[in-house]
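Thread: sanity check for a docking pose with NAP

Original post by kr_44:
Hi all, I'm comparing my docking run against an independent structure prediction. Below are the sequence and the ligand SMILES. Could someone generate the full complex and paste the structure tokens? I mainly care about where the ligand ends up relative to the chain.
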Amino acid sequence: MKRYQLGKSDLWLTEIGLGCWIMGKSGWTNVRDEESIDAIHTAIELGINWLDTAEGYGEGHSEEIIGQALQDHNREELIIATKVSPQHLSREKLPEALAGSLRRLRTDYIDLYQVHWPNPYYEYAKDHPEVPLEETMETLLTEQQKGNIRHIGVSNFTVEQMSRALAVGRFDSLQPPYSLFFRHIEKSIVPFCIENDIGIVAYSPLAQGLLTGKFNSDNRPGPEDNRSRSKLFQSPTFEAALEAVTTVREIGKRYGRTSAQTAIRWVVQQPGITAAIVGGRNPQQVRENVGATGWELSAEDIEALSTVGDKVMSTLVDDDLRMWVS
Ligand SMILES: NC(=O)c1ccc[n+]([C@@H]2O[C@H](COP(=O)([O-])OP(=O)(O)OC[C@H]3O[C@@H](n4cnc5c(N)ncnc54)[C@H](OP(=O)(O)O)[C@@H]3O)[C@@H](O)[C@H]2O)c1
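Reply from moderator J.T.:
Ran it for you. Here is the predicted complex with NAP included:
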């Protein structure tokens, strides 16, 4: 599997990474730890060299599962990316949160430590005092100097927030939502990252599973599934997405690929994208998703897919990066 340099860092990421949010269980349904561990092992066997998680996924459960799954693996061969939650961004709280992640992941360093959401942007941080972004960056740089983290990343940041962070010190990646159906970053965020050598690791590249084609009006995420609050699963976006998937499937067929593989391929071939973070609950899903690598979409088909995506995008009324309706 091809590897790409993340920003100016010495991390070379395979073009898809395994997203481990689902392994935290909270906000998902019918997740089994044994299956999660099998999914991680399958990803590694098939050549994926990095995993993305967060302290916030199941209050650390996702990190624990990764720690368990990797105990017999050579740590140096794998890149672990995790995130600090928006309520832990102060100089007092961040080191404690980092220590928790290190303990759960059973490691003594994090390869990529990302700010999950800027504070106080996200709902979990509403009751916490606002921490200046500069304080968070200074704290991250101190942890980097101590060797606890190798590289710093941010997630869900605007151009303005990235500029402020860069004025304090170097970070190497942005983790934004990006798929055929959710493309707000194209206008100003992607050009800013390209100009500043910031790698982009795109989350929800399957539009949270919509692009697999398995959802329909009789099969929608239930109330306990985080996706029931996703803008992508609300009318009329949901219906537009169902229609669009049909074309994605048809285009993919010409390459002998599924709609999921085609959709992931579209993401990794976009300008400025270092890699896609694809979630997977079991070995079958991981195996299918790895089939997005090792081939290329033609320029014409990329264009055709973008046009299909435009139709879905036109149903989203605002250009807020947050995918969830509060
Ligand atoms: N930084 C952030 O704020 C942020 C936010 C969201 C996600 N992320 C990261 O990005 C990763 C991926 O995002 P995501 O999980 O939201 O979206 P995604 O990758 O677009 O969709 C993943 C989900 O789709 C389903 N799926 C995946 N492959 C499939 C296949 N081949 N066939 C059928 N179903 C399949 C699985 O759920 P079901 O089986 O339940 O359908 C899976 O959990 C997360 O794990 C996390 O690491 C970060």
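The beta strands are 3-5, 12-14, 16-19, 50-52, 79-84, 110-115, 149-155, 173-175, 199-203, 273-279. Hope that helps with the comparison, let us know if your pose agrees.
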